[in-house]
Amino acid sequence: MAEILAERRSYVAGRWVTGETPFEVWNPADESVVTALPCTPIAEIERAVLEARRSFDSGAWAATAPKDRARVLHTFLDRLEQDREALVATLVAEAGQPLAFAERSQFLSGIMLARNTIDLYLSMPEEQANPVPVDELTRGRVALSIRRYEPVGVVTAITPYNAAFIMALQKIVPALLTGNSVILRPSPLTPVSSLIFGAAAEAAGLPPGVFGVVVEAGSAGAELLTSHPAVDMVSFTGSTAIGAVIAAQAAPTIKRVALELGGKSAQIYLPDAVSRAGAGAAAVVGGMAGQACVAATRMLVPHEAKEQVLEQVSKVYAGLKVGAPTDPATSLGPVISAAQRARCEHIIAEAVAAGATVRQGGRRPPEFERGYYFQPTVLDLPDNSNPAAQQEIFGPVLSVIGYRDLDDAVTIANDSRYGLSAQVYSADPAAATAVARRLRTGAVNVNTAVFSAYAPSGGYKHSGLGRERGPDGIRAFQEVKHLAIGEFR
What we know:
The chain has helices at residues 42-58, 66-82, 84-95, 99-122, 134-139, 164-177, 196-204, 220-227, 240-250, 277-285, 306-318, 338-353, 387-390, 406-414, 429-436, 470-475, and strands at 10-12, 15-17, 22-26, 33-38, 127-129, 144-151, 154-158, 181-185, 211-213, 233-237, 256-260, 266-269, 298-302, 357-360, 377-380, 397-403, 418-419, 422-425, 444-446, 460-461, 464-465, 478-485. The chain is of the alpha/beta class. Helix 2 (66-82) packs antiparallel against helix 4 and helix 2 crosses helix 7 (196-204).
C-alpha cells in the first residue's frame, strides 16, 4: 500500500492554517492511530465563514462565466487525480474500506461523477423563458417572462464517514459550479482524505475565500457553520437524528437545508425472482460493511419461499471473506468504530428478544483480536414490527421478512419512517415497475441500479429533504429569480 496523504493542515480563505489541539484518527481495521490532526481553531472557522461571505458578495467567483468555472473545476479534479494512490490508501486506512471499493466506488466513481456533473451543468440554461398565457402578458404589457438561476451564496457542506470522498464531490462540485462559496467540514472519523480538496482548490486557482476545508474532533465548528448568519445553505449527509438537529440550528436564520439522511430500504422479490436473493444479499454488506444509507437491509420474499431464501442468503454470507481491507481477497472490512459494532450487537439482541432468529453470523468474528469487525448477519424476522426492521443498524445485518401477496409486500415496504431507496426484482419488468410506483421512497431500482451524475437521489419522510445529483441536485444550490420585462411607457 502507498503512504497516506501527508497534508495535516486546514485550508481557510486561500491559505493553510493549523491549530494547537490535536485529535487522533483511528484505523478501524486494527485500532491503530492513523495520524493526529490539529483541530481547526474556532476563530479560523469563523474567518472561513466571513471570507466566504466576502468572496461571494464581491462576485470574484459568482460572476465568473459558467464555462470558466467549469474549466477551473476540471483543473481541481486533475489535482485530485495526481494523488490517487495516496488518497486511496487514506480511504482504506481511516474508513476500513476494502481496497477495491476505495479505488473503484469512491475514487474512480467520484472523479467520473464530478466530471459528468460539469457536463450536465453546462447543458443547463442560466436563463430560460417562463411560460405565461398570452393574455396575461398582453394585459401586463410584458415582453419577456424569464426564469433566471443564481447561486444561493455561502454553502456549508458536512459529509459522513462512510463515503467521505465521493460524498464531498457530489456537494462541492455542483455548489462551486453554480457560483457559490463553499466550506467543507468532513466527519471527525474520516477527515484526512478531505484535506486534499484544499490542495486542489489552491492548484485550480480558486479565489481566496471561495473554498475552505476545516476539521475538528467535536461539533462546535459544525454548529457554527450551521447557525452562522453569513451562511445561506447547509448540505448535510448523515443520520436522521443529526439532520433534525441541523435543521433546527439553521431555522432561526431561515437557511436552505439539503439533507440526505437515514434509510431502511426494502428489496422486494416477486415469486419468480427469489433465485436472485443471494446476489441482493451480498450487495447489502459489500464494500461498506452495510454502512450505507441506501443499503436494502430489509429483504421481502413470499412466505412460501422464505425458508429457501434464508438458506440461500445464509450460504452467501457464510462464504464472504471478512478481513483486513488491504487484502485484495477481502469482501467485508470492519465497521467504523467500537460504538458502531456495539450498536449491531444491541439491535440484534433486541430483535431476538422480539422473536427474530439469527440464521447466520450475529457476533464478532473470533479470529480477530483487534479491529471493529462484525460477521455478516442474516436475521429471520417474524414481521416488520421487529426492532431490526424499524431501526437503521448501519452494519452488515440483513433482515428477511415474508409477505402474503404484492399488496402486503408494498404495505410492509412502506411501513417505515424512512423512504430513501428500494429495489424490486421480477422476470416481468412491468409487474415489478407497478410495485415500484407504489413505494414511498426517493429511488427505486427495478432489476438493476444506476449511480449517475444525471440521476437524482434523495429521500421521502425521515430520509431527508431535497435531492443530490441530477438536474435537481444542481438546482438545489441555486435560487430562482423571475424577470418580467416590458417596454418603458
